[in-house]
Amino acid sequence: MGIEEIFGVRTIKITTSAPYSLEEFFEKIRDTVFPAGKPALVKDGLTYVIAFPQIDRNNQVQIVGNRGRFYVQRSVQPAGIGKMAANMALEELTDGLSGLSGAFGSAKKKCMKLVQNTADIILAMNL
């Protein structure tokens, strides 16, 4: 287990045969059954991400990228502006302690496994 695994960092690169935009990539995978749940194209700040249902407040499988290069990753910040604001407020109220729940425990391990499973399914699609 490397340092990335200890801190819950899991990012898997996927390169497609065509230079798909994120929206086109989403259209290719949207009806695929994933253990992480049904993907959704979500506005996150100034950009969009493909997000799967949250495991908990600090764990979510997301896909980011463009032009045929995508990254399946574990995110500790759920996609969506409203969720970002709520988490920032909670972090402020608890002096940063609420964010520690995403660094430890079974939800983190589950999310990291779902990142790998999601990437494996997409890779097997040979996009």
What does the model show?
The protein has 127 residues and is of the alpha+beta class. It has one domain. Helix content is 35%, strand content 23%. The protein contains 4 helices and 5 strands, in the order H-E-H-E-E-E-E-H-H. Strands 1-5-4-3-2 form a 5-stranded antiparallel sheet. It is globular, with a radius of gyration of 15 Å.
Order of helices and strands: HEHEEEEHH
Distance between the termini: 30 Å
Radius of gyration: 15 Å
Helix content: 25-40%
Strand order of the largest sheet: 1-5-4-3-2
> How many distinct folded domains?
1
State the shape. Answer: globular
Question: What would the keywords be for this entry?
Answer:
127 residues; alpha+beta; five-stranded antiparallel β-sheet; 4 helices; globular
